[in-house]
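Justification of resources, computational component.

The compute hours requested in this renewal are based largely on the per-chain cost of generating structure records like the one below. Each record pairs the submitted sequence with a full C-alpha cell output. That output is archived, and it is also reused by downstream analysis tasks.
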Amino acid sequence: MNECIAKKNELLAKTVISGLESRNMSGYYAKDKEEALKLALELIPEGSSISMGGAMSVHEIGLSETLKAGNYNFIDRDAFEDKRAAMLAAYDADVFLASCNAMTSDGILVNIDGNANRVSAIAQGPKKIVFVVGMNKVCPDVDSALKRARNVAAPANVQRFNLSTPCAKTGKCMDCKSPDTICCQFLITRYSRHKDRIHVILVGEDLGF
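The structure output for this chain reads:
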C-alpha cells in the first residue's frame, strides 16, 4: 500500500477510535488483514459460541474459517436446514461477528438489512459484537454514511446475491420498493449502553463493500 495512504488511514483511525470510545464502544486499529485476524482472536475466548451475518470483511481476514477450525462453537448458518433457527440462535451467542455498511469518522455505525437478522443482533442479544471494518467504509458524517450504505454497499450486495432490484441494474440507489429490496431496516448505532459489548477493529485496507 502507498505509504501516504497508510499514514492517512492510521491517523484517521485514531479519530474514529476516539469517537467510538466517547460512545462507550471499543476501537482498535490493524494495519492489515493478518493483524486484524490476530486482534479479533484476542477478543474471542476459546469455547465461545459464535454467530455472524453475511459479513464479507470477516471472511476476507480469514476469521470465520479460523474459528470453524478452532476450539469454538461456531453457529454456521449454511449448515442449518432451518435458517430461521440459525438466525434465532445468534441472539443467544457469546459473540456476534459483523462488519458495517458505513461508519462516521466520529464513531457512528450505519447498517442496512433485508431480513433484519443482522441489525437486530447488533442492536440486542449477543453478549459481544466484534466488527471488522475496512477504512474504505469511514465517512465524514451520518448523511454520507447513509449514502455510502445505499449507493455502494447495497448495489454490490444485491449483485452478489443475484437479486432483481433497480440498483442491481443502475449501480445506485433508486429508493425502490422492489420485493427483492435489501434496504428494509436501517440501524444507526450512535452509543452502546453496555460497556465492553461493541468492539470495532478498523483495518488499514479496503474490505467488503
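The radius of gyration is 16 Å. The domain at 3-203 is CATH 3.40.50.10420 (Rossmann fold).
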